[in-house]
Amino acid sequence: MFNIIKVNNEQQFNETGAGIIASLLQTNPRATLGLATGGTPVGVYKHLIELYKQGLVSFKDARSYNLDEYIGLPEDHSESYRRFMNEKLFNHVDIDPSNTHVPSGVSGDGHKAAAEYNLLLEKAGQIDLQLLGLGHNGHIGFNEPAEHLTAATHVVELDEVTRKANARYFNSIDEVPTHAITMGIGSILKAKQILLMAKGADKAEIVAKALKGPITTQCPASLLQLHPNVVVIVDQEAGGLL
Ligand SMILES: N[C@@H]1[C@@H](O)[C@H](O)[C@@H](COP(=O)(O)O)O[C@@H]1O
To answer: Is the pTM above the cut of 0.95?
Structure first.
């Protein structure tokens, strides 16, 4: 079930996303957040930091679990998702660092790290709000289009489309890791509420496919159609084909 919010500009996009997360924390300070990386949520995190500075929101008792992490990038690498989260959000708010969780991409054994993260998620109980961006090929987290999808946290080989899209953050595509650890589709769908965000004309086609197309593992985001509580925030461009 989708509740689609179409916003008019970047500021509204970020304020609406941050507003949903902030009101959850206001009503439930101990909320468990599922967080995402990528370009889409950066402005949302910026706005949350503003709300925190204004005393309107606190992360003091919140816990967070991130969707995914590249395998092989040191945690202090400029593109590691742990560093991204520290720099874009965690370092600027009152969240207890020990309550922030990102899969470990540096343990040397990706499969073991994935299994450990999955156990952690199971112990954490239900995620109250899972924030999601959307890949151009319909991936969520790093669940890439495939014949079969995996429910639990696992190691994935990244699609060429994904590596190309993310190459903009690296010096060249050769530096983009080939593998990642991602929460599985099952873990994502277990969240109480999902907040899917997409902006820009280049996302219009995949947004329409995900929300209105057939439910297929070839478009992992289409499985969100099975979830009872998904809020979708799109700008006019990304929502252009809805
Ligand atoms: N693993 C991340 C996803 O979690 C993200 O949602 C997606 C879209 O990224 P962007 O928001 O930059 O378009 O791709 C990345 O590869």
So the answer is: yes
